[in-house]
Amino acid sequence: MDIKLASELPRMRSMIPAHGSARPKLVTPGEIISHDTSFMRGHGTYMEDEIQVASVAGFVTRVNRLITVTPLRQVYQGAVGDTIIGRITQVQNKRWKVDVNARLDAELRLTNIQLPGGEQRRSSVEDEREMRALLREGDLVCVEVQKISDDGLIRLAARSTKFGKLSQGTLLAISPSLVVQDKQRMHDLPCGARVIFGANGYVYITPTVPQEQVSTYTVNFEEVPIEVRKTVGRLRNCIKLLAHHSIMISPTSVMSAYDQSIDQEYEIKDLLRPEVMQDVAVATVQKMNE
């Protein structure tokens, strides 16, 4: 078997995207990025013989004269204003510890949540005693990044009705770099499900509910119709196959994969078969490029 590393290939082509290009270039470690020495070296790159080279596998991005490579697989770093999904890991004094797919567990303080009923008041001693009744270990929450400390600790907030505890749905973890950056993270898809594309790589799929019932601190035990559960399951497998083939995750790509899986008459369980995953992924890319 003849194997060649990217660093051993002839360096004849610059991989830097044209200024303003909508399609970032994918590079592997050792692959050339640019011959232009006027560009500044960013994360994921290094200089060799006055040539900028990729040190990780990922997408090349350019901001003015700065070139960086965003890895395909990375730990969530956090950015103020991000809408993310997390899982409660600990209940502490006046705060919850939350797993947000980052290097450290994030922190959600009692003073940074909207109390049940939308009450705008200071938290009391009674509220502190009832913290576990609001959120306990294992609960899923939709929150917003409020601040990032110098030591990398992410501080969270849930001060509006669109944030809070999640129930009756399924969670899927993918690489944060595959989630399309969008201000709107919560989408009611035409197929009858709501999807929250967390900036941290956690995607939550749930049946569509009225806006006033989106966020609550009580668990809904009503039975979900079988057709809705099938829709949620199909969406989950479609997102999984897109992520498996490193296709960017967005409402458009997810609905394209969903429609392709129905048009090709695949069963929900068949979407986990490697050959079916590849067929749907290829059909989705072709559909989106039309």
Automatic annotation (TrEMBL):
The UniProt entry, under InterPro entries, shows: Exosome_cplx_N_dom (IPR025721), Exosome_RNA_bind1/RRP40/RRP4 (IPR026699), KH_dom_type_1 (IPR004088), KH_dom_type_1_sf (IPR036612), NA-bd_OB-fold (IPR012340), S1_domain (IPR003029), S1_RRP4 (IPR048565)
Report the Gene3D superfamilies cross-referenced here: 2.40.50.100, Nucleic acid-binding proteins
Top-rank lineage group of the source organism: Eukaryota
- Identify the keywords attached in UniProt to this record, alphabetized: Exosome, RNA-binding
Looking at the Swiss-Prot or TrEMBL record, what is one Pfam family this protein matches?
A: S1_RRP4
Q: What is its main location?
A: nucleus
What GO molecular function terms would the record report?
RNA binding
Q: Where is the S1 motif domain?
A: 81-159
Which Gene Ontology terms of cellular component type are present?
cytoplasmic exosome (RNase complex); nuclear exosome (RNase complex)
Q: Does the keyword RNA-binding apply?
A: yes
Q: Where in the cell is it found?
A: Nucleus
Which GO terms are recorded in the biological process aspect for this UniProt protein?
CUT catabolic process; exonucleolytic trimming to generate mature 3'-end of 5.8S rRNA from tricistronic rRNA transcript (SSU-rRNA, 5.8S rRNA, LSU-rRNA); nuclear polyadenylation-dependent rRNA catabolic process; poly(A)-dependent snoRNA 3'-end processing; regulation of gene expression; TRAMP-dependent tRNA surveillance pathway; U4 snRNA 3'-end processing
PANTHER family reported for this sequence: EXOSOME COMPLEX COMPONENT RRP4, PNAS-3 RELATED
Q: Which family does it belong to?
A: Belongs to the RRP4 family.
Write down what this protein is called. Answer: Exosome complex component RRP4
Source organism of this protein record: Halocaridina rubra
User: Per UniProt, what is the name of the gene that codes for the protein in this document?
Assistant: EXOSC2
